[in-house]
Amino acid sequence: MKYLSLTLLLATSLFLPPAASTALARDGGIESLRQTGKAFSSVAKKAAPAVVFIQVEGRSETEEADLQRGWPFQDDLFRRFFGDDFPGLSRPAPGKKRRHIGQGSGFVFAQAGDAAFVVTNNHVVENAERIRVKFQDGREFDAALQGADPKSDVAVLKIAARDLPALKWGDSAQLEVGEWVVAMGNPFGLSHTLTTGVVSAKGRTSLGINDYEDFIQTDAAINPGNSGGPLLNLDAEVVGMNTAIFSKSGGSMGVGFAIPSNLARAIAEQIVANGRVVRGYIGLAVQPLTAEIAEALGLKASQGVLVNQVNSGSPAERAGVKPGDVLLSFDGVKLDDGSQYRNRAAMARPGSGVALGLIRDGRRQDILVQVGRLDEAALQGAETAQAIGIAVRALTPEEAGRLRLAKAVQVTGVEPRSLAALAGIAPGTLILEVNRKPVGSPAEFAAALAESAGSALLRIGENGFSRQVTLRWR
């Protein structure tokens, strides 16, 4: 019967006059738009009760650049005649604390007993002394910071309240370019605003926004105040967290970025459980696999990333990964750039095993690596060592015995015109202590630098003599 009715409908439409056919098409188009609008309305009704307006109060350092932007008469001619101390106008001195009020968005994603948890961007609540959240129904709560992860720009707030509505996480890996998405938040303080658009691109990296990047790009309007709000699919599931925009005007230009839900959820759930984030450690450094390098290695395609360094004593070294290997996949997921590898390595659970698919000498193989735990302090120290322009290695037992040293590291490289170079440190120099603490390995050296508050006192050894050197990098 269904097939017969359809046939009759099609047959009838063939004999309709042109005006009637146009009217039918117009009515069908309007009905299609009406259904689309109802789909967006349905998302709003389901999601809005769990979306919050966040207001923060805090104090921040006053910087000269901020003063210039906020100074109403920064014109050079005005200042030449009247100066900076024009009567009736005052400017806070650089370096002093000033009070600021900020705002953003967030959403409830979990409830545990008498507490509810709200996820937002770290940059929304960073340095906050007081945090207030407001729901669509007018309820307001003071919130405490449960924990934050600046490297991914995710933070979790805790509210003392029961039975609050919560949003459901969706699977961002299933998103497709061109799919409809809905952004909700509080742009410019306009509470619970909805905008719509499509997924413009996925896997955006190397934008310089966060340390760990895998952004969803969307043309749904995102403006100041939207940060931390949900990006939703048509089932009202969270597929992303709105975080940043590309703009020359300060407002939306159709290029917005959201942290994918799979990343935001993994970070947020760790913060709820542990108050902090623990990342996996493989111990590789990679670089892009260019067409020229691929050709030199005898590869027909340039898909993958090239291993250029394997850290000593790392899980990768123990598993047998070597410099020059080409990584094709991480636990079955294809790798196209270094950021993908870094993100997946960081999110791997310490103690778990991951399979690295690689090519070595033209042969494909899989290597199982036992994931270690990333020492954030050591990583920070390694970044500091790189910033001051120095690389070190541990002494061999034979070298330590010959030099009669219980502990020391030897400088293997110094960047030209770096802080280390300006202090007279050269390759071959021995570093005996950092802030009066003996160091005997690159890890100990990095950890000692990580504990330094912008400066370090090094005792170095050269030609049988030692001297003290102070390095300041902040």
Written account of the structure:
There is one protein chain. With 474 residues, the chain is α+β, with helices and mostly antiparallel strands. The chain has four domains: 51-87 and 97-160, Trypsin-like serine proteases (Thrombin, subunit H, Beta Barrel); 168-274, Thrombin, subunit H, CATH 2.40.10.10; 281-373, Pdz3 Domain; 376-472, PDZ domain (Pdz3 Domain), CATH 2.30.42. The protein is built from 13 helices and 27 strands. The strands form five sheets. A six-stranded antiparallel barrel has the order 1-2-3-6-5-4. The protein has a six-stranded antiparallel barrel with strand order 8-9-10-13-12-11. Strands 15, 16, 17, 18, 19 and 20 form a six-stranded antiparallel β-sheet that branches. α10 crosses α13 (442-450). The longest helix is centred in the N-terminal third of the chain and has 30 residues, at 18-47.
Q: How many beta-strand runs?
A: 27
Number of domains: 4
Number of alpha- plus pi-helical segments: 13
How would you describe the shape? globular
Q: Note the main sheet.
A: 6 strands, antiparallel, barrel
Compute the gyration radius: what is it? Answer: 29 Å
The secondary-structure class comes to alpha+beta
